[in-house]
Structures are given as structure tokens and as C-alpha cells.
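Structure first, sequence second, as always.
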């Protein structure tokens, strides 16, 4: 079996090899296409991550309000709903069902719907981690904030959440890496990300090994970059005795 890595230098239209491997004058090579697909993958992942962090932090915090049982139940319902429905099913619901129920959503591009589905799905997992992080703190920290005259908001803002987020950095690292891998389901609604590129390029070139090896490498690079960034963040904010050293470096 011989490998032909020049497949990435071929023009996607006439299959002629382009010397620089990058198309000119409107021509597109498979390398151009793959890098563009990688950009879509990173865009979907990062936007969904921001949404998941904001919603997950909010829902996870609300689930620890001891004197607000109704809010706690609503937070629990959010987690159970989005965590227990498979991601691919959620994407199809956002793409096909929700626009039918709410016509205003029909004009929303598939890219945005995938970001919403992936962000909501991941937010349920992050909410559980935030809740666990807050509940892992000594109860005295909450009482100390109250004794200083802090409101509930101030107690969470200045006392509980800064410590809780330091504790949950390792599982957050795993979720951040997972969101890049889970973005591959976007191909189901025709978002031109890496998995869709791999499927179409393999069919057009009959060079599946080369195509999938290259795409796998890009996924690995993306996940490794996130891993290293989170490991750096953990090292800078670590409080001795609160987080196991090196946990974000791949222990989860």
C-alpha cells in the first residue's frame, strides 16, 4: 500500500496538483478546504464553550441556593434534560423541530443552532461540576461571608466561586477537550467542519487513510492545545492542598 500525501495539493475541481498546495484565483485545494473546515470546528467549539461556561456556572450556582428550593428544582431539571438527551438528537431537534415550533428561528443559520445545541448540552455537565465544587468547600466559608455582612451574591462572588472554580479546573479541562470532539456531530446538519470534510474528501479522492490521518492530527492538536492552556491556568491559580498537582495535564 502506498500513501499519496499530494492529495492535499490537488485542486478540488480538476484534481490537478497545485505546486504550492494552496489555491490561487478562486481555486481551492484539499489543503485549503481542510484548513477552512478546521476553522469551522474551532469556531463552533469555542463559541459553544463560552455559552456552556456561562450557563453552566449560572445553573450550577443556582442549584446550591439552600433557601430557594424552587430555583434548585429548576436547575436540576435543566441538568437532567440536557444531560440525558444524546447530543446528536439535540442537534436534530434544534435544526428541524424548534424552527417548526418557533418560526422566528427559521432564519437562524445551522452554525448558530449547532452552537446552541452543543453549548446547552455541555452546560449541563459544567453545572454539575460547579455544584460539586461549591459543595466540596467547607461550610464555614459560606458562614464567614455571611458573618462579614456579605449578601448572598457577594458571598458567591468573592468567597465561594473563586475557590470552587480552582477545584474544578481538572474536570473543566476534560469538558473543554470533549467539546472539540463533540463538535464533529455538526456534520449532521451540514456544517462544513472537519468530519464533513473528511467524509466528502475521502469519497472524492479515495484516499481515506491520508485524509483521516490528517483530520485526526488536527483534532489531537486542538485537544492538546486546550489541555496545555488549562494546565497553565491551573498552575497559575492553584491553591496548595486544594487541587492535585498536574491533574489538568491529562489525568482525566
Amino acid at each position: 500500500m502506498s500513501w499519496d500525501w499530494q492529495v492535499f495539493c490537488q485542486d478540488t475541481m480538476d484534481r490537478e496538483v497545485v505546486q504550492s498546495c494552496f489555491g490561487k484565483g478562486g481555486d481551492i485545494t484539499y489543503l485549503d478546504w481542510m484548513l477552512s473546515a478546521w476553522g469551522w470546528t474551532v469556531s463552533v467549539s469555542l463559541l459553544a464553550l463560552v455559552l456552556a461556561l456561562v450557563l453552566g456556572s449560572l445553573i450550577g450556582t443556582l442549584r446550591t441556593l439552600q433557601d430557594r428550593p424552587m430555583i434548585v428544582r429548576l436547575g436540576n431539571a435543566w441538568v437532567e434534560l440536557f444531560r440525558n438527551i444524546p447530543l446528536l438528537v439535540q442537534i436534530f431537534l434544534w435544526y428541524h423541530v424548534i424552527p417548526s415550533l418557533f418560526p422566528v428561528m427559521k432564519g437562524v443559520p445551522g452554525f448558530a443552532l449547532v452552537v446552541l445545541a452543543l453549548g446547552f448540552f455541555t452546560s449541563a455537565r459544567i453545572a454539575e461540576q460547579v455544584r460539586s465544587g461549591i459543595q466540596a468547600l467547607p461550610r464555614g466559608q459560606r458562614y464567614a461571608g455571611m458573618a462579614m455582612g456579605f449578601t448572598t451574591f457577594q458571598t458567591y462572588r468573592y468567597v465561594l466561586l473563586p475557590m470552587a472554580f480552582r477545584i474544578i479546573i481538572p474536570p473543566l479541562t476534560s469538558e473543554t477537550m470533549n467539546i472539540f470532539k463533540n463538535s464533529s456531530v455538526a456534520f449532521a446538519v451540514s456544517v462544513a467542519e472537519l468530519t464533513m470534510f473528511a467524509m466528502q474528501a475521502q469519497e472524492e479522492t479515495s484516499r481515506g487513510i491520508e485524509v483521516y490521518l490528517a483530520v485526526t492530527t488536527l483534532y489531537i492538536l486542538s485537544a492538546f492545545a486546550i489541555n496545555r492552556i488549562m494546565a497553565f491556568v491551573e498552575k497559575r491559580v492553584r491553591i496548595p492542598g486544594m487541587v492535585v498537582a498536574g491533574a489538568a495535564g491529562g489525568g482525566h
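Margin note: The radius of gyration is 22 Å.
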